[in-house]
Design brief:
heterodimer, A: about 200 residues, alpha+beta, 5-stranded mixed β-sheet, 12 strands, about 30% helix, elongated, B: about 575 residues, 6-stranded mixed β-sheet, 16 strands
Chain lengths: ~200, ~575
């Protein structure tokens, strides 16, 4: 997999948040609880997880207990802040209206905890994308080159102006307009750091 | 608000305008007002487009005051779409201005002797009824432009577009926003058709010279309002998510849950969801219109500001920020993942004056029928244009999904009481399905929306994890919502008052300070139950039975991906929702 590192102005970091809507892949320890994954590995604080991330999905199922749900190889995890209206109240972690969606809720994982490794897709929505996305970008995420190309197509001037330097597989490269199109068919390990 | 305005269109000669005291309707507002009047004065078996039906427009109890979030208005009648009682709710400036003019309700009744169109101008001097034949055939935007030129830029306008003039069952009533654009709609149930049947094209409200409505206990009211606003601003839903991303912030979440009705309710996830999400929409709006374009209030006094402004590729205003329901209806439900197309459709819906939910569901049924393919953006635009043009196909489509499905032999028509389901699949979120099935309004998500039921003291404590919890929760939500709908308050306050006791207490003091007596939990429950009881009685007299409180059968048989779920709430359970 091609490793692409971009060193950018802070103002262009939000351009990458859309990557998290479709989901990015992390190679990580699996077989652990959601709390272990999010706090122990991704660096979220317990308080942030408990108070801010009000809506979570694991494999499309709303999660009520982050200390019981288990992340496995191939899991798809989505995080969101509190959402409005009856739907927001329904999907809320441990919410009063959880009965409304009991047929799709995350069930107890019978297999339990077991320390393995694997690949997990992480999606971040709304405010959580803004608050957590930067950290994941810095650590490195697997994305589809085509999704990066779409960002470049949408913000050609802004993106190019904001990239101070770039490295591909540890070689310095010129971040010109053709960079993203040449990588559009490739899976990438992308990391983004902020220029001081 | 101490008077009711009646406009009798069937009077000998010209229509007759009378003003009367509130009488038996004293103390009512919003949905309580509209449903009480309709239940009392409209024969349940009348034809919805006939002389015996009435259109009632009523601001909420707190509208026209300085109370934050109090700008909602209710429109009630017998619905030409469902055949039952209808309350359609809207934002915009109408509630504030009408309330300050002192009108607790405007009632349009009778039917004009010919096809003349009228406009009604109301200011502090009184009421004038004038010919509006020069507005015939105009969309809402052109109508408001002309009214603005005549009456000024500060008036609030209530109008119908071509769809209402043609009495289509999906026709809405438009209310102008703070920029005097006809972007807010009482959308559901064909209320625009009833206004059209009365020969009224527009109502113009001018509150120049009128003052804000005063609370009974000014100091208590002012202090409570301050705390209420602080609470709304600091809550993550009302102070962050909704202002930043609008209601369309729900797209990613509903889609992730597998409850996003896609391609006419065929599956629960849409591959193009991230292309039309609230996050993507807000970024696009802010790019095109400048930072802040994705944040906008629909009425003065709104501090949540869940709306926004959508500019086209040319940088010109196109439409208000499409809501979640609109983006879903014209987007995922039709297989379309292009925000510019969806915004264009929203503009057309607002201009022709049709319910965006009904229109999107109807296009979905038309796609199922094979008129156009799922995902055909230009095809969808052409179909909606046919509605505005009143072509024979347009007249079918403009009468909603049930009529369209019937005309084209489609089984999979997602309606209850002939009103289209909104943007949550009831197989994935079965509790919302309970509300769709049983509400007096037809399939309607906002009928059970006021989530702070426990704090409002409605229904006591329910064990949310028990299977029968869904029925009880839906019941309590419907009761609480009926009460909130009567106050003029925006339902989005519910999350902040659910989570923050000080904000809830501030709301209680706000209402109490305004009306001059405390609002208790029993008051809320009794108000909500009273409204629902009137509505249920009307529907029963109109011929509705328990068989109408059901989802279409295919929701029980056709499993929804990705969870492979069917609607499993039993009919016997649905029949207990209104047991209290």
């Amino acid at each position: 997999m091609i490793r692409l590192h971009l060193h950018v102005d802070v103002s262009c970091v939000p351009l990458f948040y859309s990557l998290f809507e479709k989901g990015v892949v992390l190679s990580t320890r699996t077989g652990c609880t959601l709390r272990d994954f999010l706090c122990g590995q991704l660096g979220l604080s317990d308080e942030y997880l408990d108070q801010r991330v009000q809506t979570l999905f694991l494999d499309a199922r709303p999660v009520d207990d982050v200390d019981k749900a288990v992340v496995r190889d191939g899991s798809v995890l989505a995080l969101s802040a509190a959402m409005p209206g009856i739907l927001g109240a329904t999907m809320r972690k441990g919410g009063r209206y959880a009965a409304f969606r009991k047929d799709i809720s995350q069930h107890t994982d019978e297999c339990g905890i077991c320390d393995t490794s694997g690949r997990v897709t992480v999606k971040l929505f709304n405010m959580v994308a803004r608050e957590v996305g930067g950290g994941l970008l810095e650590a490195g995420i697997e994305v589809d080159g085509g999704d990066l190309q779409r960002i470049a197509d949408r913000y050609p001037g802004k993106l190019n102006r904001s990239i101070r330097s770039a490295r591909m597989d540890d070689r310095a490269i010129t971040p010109d307009t053709s960079l993203f199109s040449t990588l559009s068919e490739e899976p990438l390990l992308l990391s983004v750091s902020i220029a001081g | 608000m101490d008077k009711i305005l009646r406009i009798k269109m069937s009077a000998q000669g010209e229509p007759a305008v009378t003003t009367e005291a509130l009488g038996a309707y004293a103390g009512l507002g919003g949905r309580a007002m509209t449903s009480t009047i309709v239940a009392k004065e409209v024969p349940p078996t009348c034809h919805p487009l006939g002389a015996a039906n009435k259109l009632v427009i009523a601001p909420g109890l707190l509208s026209g005051s300085a109370a934050a979030m109090s700008g909602r208005i209710s429109v009630g009648c017998k619905s030409p779409l469902t055949g039952g009682i209808k309350e359609a709710n809207s934002g915009g400036q109408g509630a504030q201005v009408m309330a300050r003019l002192g009108y607790a309700a405007i009632i349009l009744e009778g039917m004009p002797a010919n096809d003349s169109l009228y406009k009604v101008f109301i200011n502090k001097e009184g009421v004038k009824l004038e010919s509006a034949d020069d507005l015939k055939g105009l969309g809402n935007y052109a109508t408001v432009d002309k009214l603005s030129a005549q009456y000024g830029e500060k008036v609030a306008c209530i109008s119908i577009g071509q769809a209402g003039e043609m009495k289509m069952s999906a026709a809405s009533i438009a209310f102008t926003d703070m920029e005097q654009r006809p972007t807010r709609h009482a959308g559901r149930g064909g209320v625009g058709a009833v206004m059209g049947s009365k020969g009224i094209k527009a109502i113009i409200l001018d509150d120049d010279g009128m003052k804000m409505r005063k609370p009974a206990e000014a100091e208590k009211f002012k202090a409570a309002n301050k705390i209420f606003v602080e609470g709304l601003r600091k809550h993550p839903v009302t102070g962050e998510g909704l202002p930043a991303f609008g209601t369309n912030v729900l797209t990613n979440v509903v889609n992730e849950a597998g409850g996003y009705p896609t391609n006419n309710f065929k599956t629960g996830q849409f591959a193009g969801a991230s292309n039309i999400s609230g996050e993507t929409q807000a970024a696009l709006e802010n790019e095109r219109g400048g930072e802040g374009s994705a944040t906008h209030g629909c009425h003065r006094g709104c501090v949540i500001r869940c709306s926004g402004t959508f500019y086209g590729k040319n940088g010109n205003f196109l439409t208000k920020q499409p809501e979640y329901e609109t983006v879903w209806a014209h987007g995922g439900n039709c297989g379309i993942d292009n925000l510019d197309v969806i915004a264009q459709l929203d503009r057309m819906d607002d201009d022709f004056g049709v319910d965006t939910i009904e229109m999107g569901a109807t296009i979905g049924v038309a796609m199922e029928a094979g008129l156009i393919k799922f995902g055909d953006s230009q095809g969808a635009i052409k179909l909606v244009q046919e509605v505005g043009d009143g072509t024979p196909l347009g007249r079918i489509l403009g009468n909603g999904a049930a009529v369209t499905g019937q005309c084209f032999g489609v089984e999979r028509v997602p309606v209850v009481k002939r009103q289209s389901m909104p943007a949550y699949d009831p197989r994935a979120v079965q509790g919302i399905g309970v509300t769709y099935a049983t509400t007096t309004m037809g399939a309607d998500h906002t009928a059970g929306y006021a989530v702070a039921t426990n704090l409002l003291g409605v229904g006591g404590n329910v064990d949310a994890l028990k299977p029968e919890g869904q029925v009880e929760l839906s019941r309590n939500l419907q009761i609480a919502t009926a009460a909130i709908d009567s106050t003029g308050m925006c339902l989005f306050i519910a999350f902040a008052i659910l989570d923050q006791p000080e904000t809830f207490n501030a709301l209680v003091d706000l209402v109490g300070g305004f009306i001059g007596q405390p609002m208790t939990a029993d008051d809320v429950t009794n108000l909500g139950k009273s409204v629902l009881k009137s509505e249920r009685a009307f529907n029963q007299a109109a011929g509705f039975t328990a068989k109408d409180d059901r989802l279409p059968d295919y929701f029980k048989n056709e499993a929804l991906a990705p969870h492979n779920v069917t609607f499993g709430v039993k009919d016997e359970e649905l029949d207990t929702v209104f047991n209290w």
